Amino acid sequence: MNIYDLISGISEGRFDEKFRKLYGASDRAVLKARARYLSAAEKFSVMCPEFEEIHVYSAPGRTEIGGNHTDHQHGCVLAAAVSLDMIAIVNFHDEGVIRVRSEGYMADEIDLSSLEVNPAEKGTSTALIRGIAARFAEMGVKTEGFDAYMTSDVLSGSGLSSSAAFEILAATIINERYNEGKASSAELARIGRFAENAYFGKACGLMDQTVCAEGGAVFIDFADTEAPEMSKLGFDFDKAGYSVCITDTRGSHADLSEEYDAVSAEMRSVARAMGCEYLRECDEERFYAELPELRRQCTDRALLRAAHFFAENSRAAEEAEALADGDTERFFELVEQSGTSSAELLQNLYSTGEPQVQPVPLAIMLSKRFLKGAGAVRVHGGGFAGTIQAFVPTYLAADYAVEMERIFGAGCCYVLTVRPVGGCELML
């Protein structure tokens, strides 16, 4: 389509059904999507006034629902794509260069004749795009070039994986245009991880990219990290009368790398003491039987974190089963158990470096007080200073957001729906 088709299509409501699928069934969600896409179309036409033919793509953020700090031990995770996403308006050409302007950021320009790792680009979006193009090139896919305007409401630092959304968006653009859409969602996830590991310079697993690429609520077993087993669940929180609310407590993430790294390092120290590489390979009953000996080799905190893994790994599978059965009462019980385990065993609700600063426990306490036993609440993602997740009855969601924002500031609470599709192209 051309830019005028997009603008008229949005204005006349011809995209409304697609918007309802991606962003929720409410009229408010549709009107917000219309305004956002019209704004993006306007900014693209300013950036590239000579181009009329365009393509439109979207990739979602994600929320971890079950399996807190289990994936790095080859465990099981329950996660879902959400209604916050990153969108791109794209014009393709054969100039051998990718130019990307992301709202609020400096422009990226990647010469496709040079796809090797550039150490000077470490930690940048340019590195991610170059790494994705490089992996497609290794697959025999020739990317000729494009210009793109991107905008995102998956805010950086929100705990909803803006980096994975960006990777899957870029990979989806190349896959759909130059690879006839042949790469599966699992392959797109591996491409994103490759770019983040090898080019961006950050070690990461595969959970975020997998969920952003696949969409919906997904149970993932990482026993084989190169080919994880995925089961997509048909449960619809919106239809069940619940909203997924993510609150950013706005605690500082500065200097927390050691805290995050210590979780996986301590879990692996227990695994190695038991003669294994990862806790997933260890027998839980043997772990408890050998605790006296393990205490001579591992710290008590490491043992507590290992105990969290064993219980949380099984719990993620139970949560998936509860959702598959439509048993929300059992699911919420398990979510609360997960939250308790993260607090007492995993110990990732606040930094040991600043024990007097505890926004995550404060937010959880206030959420429980507000919900009065309805729904459930837990720490979300890595923890220490980040976000919490609450399953809130939809009729209470707006008031819940007001209460969270009263404490943690305007715009801190995201009231979300689960998005059924991952990275995709939007067409009339």
Could you characterize the architecture of this molecule?
With 428 residues, the protein is an alpha+beta fold. The chain contains 15 helices and twelve strands. The strands form two sheets. Strands 1, 2, 3, 4, 5, 6, 7 and 12 form an eight-stranded mixed β-sheet that branches. Strands 9-10-8-11 form a four-stranded antiparallel β-sheet. Strand 6 and strand 7 form a beta hairpin. Helix 4 (125-138) crosses helix 6 (185-200). The radius of gyration is 22 Å and the shape is globular. The termini are close together. The model has no long low-confidence stretch (mean pLDDT 94).
Give the gist of this structure.
The protein has 428 residues and is of the alpha+beta class. 46% of the residues lie in helices and 19% in strands. The strands form 2 sheets. Strands 1, 2, 3, 4, 5, 6, 7 and 12 form an 8-stranded mixed sheet that branches. It has a 4-stranded antiparallel sheet with strand order 9-10-8-11.
